[in-house]
Write a structure and sequence with these properties.
Layout (H helix, E strand, L loop, with lengths): L74 E5 L2 E5 L5 E2 L5 E4 L2 E4 L1 E6 L5 E9 L2 E8 L11 E8 L3 E8 L5 E10 L5 H5 L9 E4 L2 E6 L2 E8 L4 E3 L4 E8 L4 E10 L20 E4 L4 H14 L1 E4 L2 E10 L3 E4 L1 H10 L6 H11 L17 E2 L8 E2 H19 L3 H22 L14 E2 H20 L5 H19 E2 L6 E2 L2 E2 L5 E2 L27 H11 L30 E2 H14 L2 H17 L7 E2 L21 H15 L1 E4 L4 E4 L10 E8 L2 E7 L5 E5 L5 E2 L2
Parallel strand pairs: 32-36
Antiparallel strand pairs: 1-2, 2-4, 3-6, 4-5, 6-11, 7-8, 8-9, 9-10, 10-17, 11-16, 12-13, 13-14, 14-17, 15-16, 18-33, 19-20, 20-21, 22-23, 24-27, 25-26, 27-28, 29-30, 31-32, 33-34, 34-35
Helix pairs in contact: 2-12, 3-4, 3-5, 3-12, 4-6, 5-6, 5-7, 6-7, 7-8, 10-11, 10-12
Protein name: Glycogen debranching protein
Organism: Streptomyces cynarae
InterPro entries: 6-hairpin_glycosidase_sf, 6hp_glycosidase-like_sf, GDE_N_bis
C-alpha cells in the first residue's frame, strides 16, 4: 500500500477512531494493583538467531538463567566472531565457560602451560584491550634461587585465536627449560556448555606443527611457531626445550584456526571502524578511560551482514548474545550517533531487509524475540520496540548528518514502520505489546509517541504524506495518557507501569518510566513534546532521583519499595546501564540537573569499579561508604547498550542538538557542570569533525565544526 493512501484499519476500511467495533479504553476503571500472568522467562541464548515475528511465544529455555555458568568473574576478550573466556588464573582448563570460541562454537577448551614440570604461579591477570588479556605467572626454575622466582611467564591471549607465551629469565646463569602446552577441545556450542550438556574431549591427531581435532560438528587445528620439539597426540601435548641466557627471553605463539576458516578479522579495527577517534578530557579523570573503553567494546561487538559485508551492526553482548538483536542494535546505534552515522546506516539497512512485507497485521514490523519483563508483567516483544525505534534512528541520524541519498533509500522502510504503528493502534489510542491482546505498557506508549512525532517530522521534510495523521494521533495520546496512566497519591503520584486491556493499572514504579523523558529530536535543535505535562515531569524527576529508584550506582529496574523488588532481578531491581543513561539524558534535557547529576555520578563510580567496562546490568543494592557495585552473574559484559550508554552519558553533559540539513547545531549543556570542565573532541557532525568544551560555569563553546555550520539559539 503506498503511503499516499490514508492509514487504514486492519481490514483496509477507514473507521472512526472510537468506533463501536473497538471501544476506547475506559478512563473510569479504578486504579488497582494487578499481578499479570508471569509467563516463562525469555531464554538468554548464547546466540540470537534470526529473529522471528513475535506474537507467538518462544519456547522455554532448556536451562534457567539462574543456572547459567557465572561470567562475572571471567576475563572476556571479544573481536567477533572471535571470543575467548578465561579465569584470572590464566590457564584454560575446559571447566565452565573457559575456552576460545568462533561464531559460538568452542574451538579450544583447554590450554594449560607447564614450565620445568610446574604450573606458573599466577600473579596478575588483566584486560589489555577489548580483544586481548595478559596473564603473568612466576616459576622457580633454579634450585638455588632461594625464595625469589627467577622466571616470569607472560601469556597474551587474543580473541582472534592467538596466544603468545613468553618466558623471561632473571637467573644469573643460562637455563634450559622444558615447556609443555596441554591442549584439548570438545567443539561444543555455547548453548550446550551453558546447559551442561557437553561431551568428552575429542581425540587429537598431529597436524603440521601442532594438533588437529575433527568430528561431525567441525574441525579445528592449533599450529605453533616455532614448531614444537615433540607432539604427543594421545595426550594433546606440545613440548619445547627452551634455552634462555641470563636475562633472556623466548616466545612461542599458538594459532588456532577452525579448518577452512580464515583468520578472524575484527570489523571494528582500522579503517573499517564506523566510529571516529573521539576523546574526552577535563577535570574528571574518569571521562577519558570511560569513553575509550566503551568505544573499544563497541568495536569488538560489531558484526557484518554476511550477504552485504559493507553493512555492519552490533551484537547484543558477550558471552550470551553474540548475535544480532534488533532492538538493542538500534538503541546502541542511536546513542553513538555523535561518533558518526555509519553504524546507524548499516543497522538500518540490515533491519530493513528483515522487515515483514505483504498483507497482514504484522506488515511493516521489524521482527524480534520476546523478552522477560519481570514478575509483574508478561514478556514483551522486542520487535515492537525495534519497529518504533527504526524511524526515530533514521530521523535523528539524518539530523546528525546521514547523507540525503542514504536517508531517502531507507525512508520507505521507516514509512512501513509508521504505517504498522497506525494500523496496529487502529481506532484506539494505545499500542498493546505484544499484539494484539497484550497489556498497554507505559514505555511502549512513550516509544510509540516518539516514533509518531519524530517520524511525522521526517515525512514532512521529504514531502511524504502521513505526517498530519501521525501528529493528530500523538496529540490524542498525550491528552489521554496522563488521565489513564497516572496514579495519584499523597506523594504527588506516579506513572503506572502498564494498564491491562480491561482498564486495571499495574502500579509498579520502574526504570521503564525513564523512557517518558526520551522524547526525540526535531529540527532547529528542539526536542519533541512528551506524554507528561510539566508538573508530572517534575514529579517523575523527583521519583527517579529518590532513594527508592537511585541506588547510588544507577537507576534500579524496580523501586526498592515495591513488593516484587529483587536487587538481582534483571527487570525487577537490578541497575540497567542503558536505562540509567536514558534517565540521565532525559532529566538533563528537561532541566532537572540535580537528579541527572546524581545518577551520572553513581554510574561513573560504578564504571570505575568495573574497570570502565560496564556490564549490561548489576545488582541494585544501595551504595554505602566503602562499598562496590555487585556484579550480576548472568550479565553480558561487554554489552552493546551498556557501552553505547557510556557515550550518551558524556554527550548528555554537552546537550548537542544537531540539525545538519539546516546547517545548525544547538548546545544545551548541563549548567551545573557536575564533572567540572569537560572537552569532547573528534566527534562527528554533518560529515566533519566536531569538538565542544563545557566550562566549569556550564557554558558551552564549539571548538571545531564543519564549514558553514551555525550555532543555534
Amino acid at each position: 500500500m503506498p503511503l499516499s493512501a490514508p492509514f487504514s484499519a486492519p481490514d483496509g476500511n477507514r473507521r472512526p477512531r472510537h468506533g463501536p467495533s473497538e471501544p476506547r479504553l475506559s478512563r473510569g476503571a479504578p486504579p488497582a494493583a494487578s499481578r499479570m500472568p508471569g509467563g516463562t522467562p525469555a531464554p538468554v541464548p548464547p546466540h540470537v538467531d534470526r529473529p522471528q515475528a513475535c506474537p507467538a511465544p518462544l519456547p522455554a529455555a532448556p536451562r534457567r538463567v539462574a543456572d547459567l555458568p557465572p561470567a562475572h568473574t571471567a576475563l572476556i576478550c571479544v573481536a567477533l566472531p572471535g571470543l575467548v573466556i578465561s579465569t584470572d588464573q590464566g590457564q584454560l582448563t575446559g571447566q565452565g565457560l573457559e575456552g576460545f570460541y568462533r561464531a559460538g562454537r568452542r574451538v579450544l577448551s583447554r590450554c594449560e602451560v607447564r614450565v620445568a614440570g610446574r604450573e606458573p604461579l599466577p600473579v596478575q591477570a588483566r584486560m589489555v584491550a577489548a580483544d586481548r588479556a595478559r596473564f603473568v605467572g612466576t616459576v622457580h626454575a633454579s634450585p638455588d634461587a632461594g625464595p625469589d622466582p627467577d622466571v616470569v611467564v607472560e601469556r597474551v591471549r587474543f580473541a582472534d585465536g592467538t596466544e603468545r607465551i613468553t618466558l623471561h629469565s632473571a637467573a644469573p646463569r643460562p637455563l634450559r627449560l622444558p615447556m609443555e602446552v596441554s591442549l584439548g577441545t570438545d567443539l561444543a556450542e555455547l548453548g550446550e556448555i551453558a546447559s551442561g550438556s557437553t561431551g568428552p574431549e575429542l581425540p587429537a591427531t598431529v597436524h603440521d606443527s601442532g594438533l588437529r581435532w575433527s568430528c561431525q560438528k567441525g574441525d579445528c587445528a592449533v599450529t605453533a611457531a616455532p614448531p614444537p620439539t615433540d607432539a604427543l597426540a594421545s595426550a594433546g601435548l606440545l613440548r619445547w626445550e627452551l634455552e634462555l641466557p641470563p636475562g633472556g627471553t623466548r616466545s612461542v605463539e599458538l594459532r588456532l584456526r577452525p579448518d577452512g576458516a580464515a583468520p578472524v578479522r575484527a570489523v571494528g579495527h582500522g579503517a573499517a571502524s564506523p566510529f571516529v577517534q573521539a576523546r574526552a578530557t577535563g577535570d574528571d579523570p574518569r571521562v577519558q578511560p570511560l569513553l575509550d573503553t566503551c568505544v573499544e567494546d563497541l568495536r569488538a561487538l560489531l558484526l557484518r551482514d554476511p550477504a552485504h559485508p559493507s553493512d555492519i551492526q552490533l551484537a547484543a553482548g558477550a558471552p550470551w548474545r553474540c548475535g544480532p538483536a534488533p532492538a538493542e542494535s538500534l538503541a546502541a546505534a542511536r546513542m553513538t550517533l555523535p561518533l558518526g552515522t555509519r553504524l546507524a546506516a548499516g543497522t538500518l539497512r540490515i533491519l530493513a531487509r528483515t522487515q515483514i512485507g505483504g498483507p497482514g497485521l504484522r506488515s511493516g514490523m521489524i521482527p524480534g524475540p520476546r523478552r522477560d519483563a519481570g514478575a509483574h508483567l508478561p514478556p514483551g516483544c522486542t520487535g515492537t520496540e525495534a519497529t518504533l525505534l527504526f524511524p526515530v534512528l533514521l530521523a535523528e541520524a539524518w539530523r546528525w548528518g546521514l547523507p540525503e541519498r542514504e536517508t531517502e533509500e531507507l525512508l520507505p522502510a521507516a514509512e512501513h514502520c509508521l504505517r504498522w504503528l497506525r494500523t496496529t493502534v487502529g481506532d484506539g489510542v494505545y499500542l498493546p505489546d505484544p499484539q494484539p491482546t497484550g497489556p498497554l505498557r507505559c514505555e511502549t506508549q512513550a516509544q510509540a509517541h516518539r516514533a509518531a512525532v519524530v517520524g511525522a517530522d521526517l515525512l514532512d521534510a521529504y514531502g511524504r504524506p502521513g505526517g498530519a495523521e501521525l501528529r493528530e494521533w500523538a496529540e490524542e495520546l498525550r491528552d489521554a495518557f496522563c488521565e489513564d496512566f497516572w496514579i495519584e497519591d499523597r506523594s504527588g503520584g506516579r506513572p503506572a507501569a502498564a494498564r491491562t486491556r480491561d482498564g486495571r493499572l499495574v502500579p509498579h514504579l520502574g526504570a521503564g518510566a525513564a523512557h517518558l523523558l526520551d522524547t526525540g529530536l526535531l529540527g532547529c535543535g528542539t526536542l519533541a513534546p512528551g506524554l507528561l505535562d510539566k508538573a508530572r515531569t517534575e514529579q517523575l524527576a523527583r521519583l527517579l532521583g529518590g532513594p527508592a529508584m537511585d541506588s547510588g550506582w544507577g537507576l534500579r529496574g524496580l523501586a526498592a519499595r515495591e513488593a516484587a523488588y529483587n536487587p538481582f532481578g534483571h527487570r525487577a531491581g537490578a541497575v540497567r546501564v542503558h536505562e540509567t543513561a536514558v534517565a540521565v539524558a532525559g532529566l538533563a534535557a528537561a532541566g532537572y540537573e540535580k537528579e541527572a547529576g546524581g545518577l551520572l555520578g553513581g554510574m561513573l563510580a560504578a564504571a570505575e569499579a568495573f574497570g570502565y567496562r560496564l556490564p549490561e546490568m548489576f545488582a541494585g543494592e544501595p551504595r554505602t561508604e566503602g562499598s562496590a557495585p555487585l556484579p550480576h552473574p548472568a550479565a553480558c559484559r561487554p554489552a552493546a547498550t551498556a557501552a553505547a550508554a557510556g557515550v550518551l552519558l558524556l554527550t548528555a553533559l554537552v546537550g548537542i542538538r544537531p540539525d545538519a540539513p539546516a546547517g545548525t547545531v544547538t548546545l544545551c549543556p548541563v549548567r551545573s557542570a557536575p564533572l567540572g570542565e569537560i572537552v569532547l573532541t573528534g566527534l562527528r557532525l554533518a560529515g566533519a569533525p566536531f569538538s565542544v568544551r563545557v566550562g566549569r560555569l556550564g557554558l558551552a563553546m564549539v571548538e571545531e565544526a564543519a564549514d558553514g555550520l551555525q550555532l543555534g539559539a
